[in-house]
Amino acid sequence: MQGRFSHKINAALERHLPERRLFLKSDTETRFIRLRPVTQAVAITGSALFVAWTIIATAVLLMDSIGSGTAREQAARQQATYEARLNAVAADRDARAAEAHAAQERFNLALAEVSAMQERLLASEDRRRELETGIEVIQSTLRRTIQERDSARGEAERLMADASGGAPDAVRGTDAEELAATVAFLTDALHDTAAEREEVAEGAVEAASRADDLALELRLIEERNDRIFGQLEEAVAISLEPLDEMFRSAGMEPDRILEEVRRGYSGQGGPLTPIVVSTMGGGEAEPDALRANEILRRLDEMNLYRIAAEKAPFAMPVRGAFRFTSGFGYRRDPRGAGTRMHEGTDFAAATGTPIYSTADGVVTHAGWQGGYGRLIKIQHAFGIETRYAHLSNIRVSVGDRVSRGDRIGDMGNSGRSTGTHLHYEVRIGGTATNPMTYIRAARDVF
Hints:
By secondary structure, the chain is α+β, with helices and mostly antiparallel strands. The protein contains six helices and 14 strands. Among the domains are: 143-311, no CATH class; 314-441, Glucose Permease (Domain IIA), CATH 2.70.70.10. It has helices spanning 2-13, 37-163, 169-249, 254-264, 287-311, 435-441, and strands at residues 20-25, 30-35, 323-326, 329-332, 339-342, 345-348, 354-356, 361-369, 373-379, 384-394, 401-402, 407-411, 422-428, 431-433. Helix 2 (37-163) runs antiparallel to helix 3 and helix 3 packs across helix 6 (435-441). The two termini are 93 Å apart.
């Protein structure tokens, strides 16, 4: 049965692939190999499949090589774009810092000018009160002089009436002489009094003119103070808004943070002393003094923000050229251990890249710790802790107090790591939070 089926196949293929014989000749004999149509078809099919497989494999390798080159170029382009964006963000941050510094200098100059104007205003008020007191003294002196003049005239008239009576001639002559002397004395006194009254009247007119000039000067000073106070209030409001937004973006309540900083520092208002409120008559505070005290209160609030910003991790732990290699959240473990929580942010750069503290604090750990490798822990205010892992070198010791921007170590590849990078964590009350929340919040301020 099988022979007949094979015979039929050979007969069908005979027209296209006739039977061939392959002769093999030696010195003593000649042999041949019969190549039936089926054998030829199998050989041709196998050769074709081998050639096709070779072509397909070559094409796959070629496409894979082209694809790998394209992926590398795309990765290089993305890296260049990211570095350009990072440089632009750094330049913008530096520009913002320069603007904040310039604004602080303007505040200091404006505050000095306000203090000088306050001194001039108080001096002008003292001069005005002195002039008012002088005018009252002159008016009382003038009234007393007029009363004395009227009394002297009455006394002279009485003496004249007595002199014109029917007294004896001897007595009358003596009284007449005394009366003449008295009248002469009273006349001189009246002339002196009249001259003094004229001088007092001229002084009163001059004092009134000076009082008008001082009132005009006082109005001009008040208008200028009002413009300066308006500019200061606007500048303070514009400067406080991004600081307030920075803390809110980081999930930190500004009022609670400021109150905690205020409790930790002695002296109300820090280094700023409120202006003494002056009162007049009714005991109500002057509007300019109230506005100045409010501006100083807002400046003190800005100072508290500055202190709080130094104590919270709003800075970058790495400077210069680097790239983000892994963010905060769940990810596939690089060692193939499934999906795990990544509790920090990874920054990749060259070995030995400087690592900086992101806020003021105290070093609580500086050494080797399991998968972290060489690890630094820093405890900050508000219950915040930062961690810097996989270091190649540690430059601080436990108990050291560090400030924001101090170099604390060098980037490395220690511990459970697949390459040189920094693993950076921010923890609040022991719970890990996304470090980029703080970095992004400070992007428009520092």
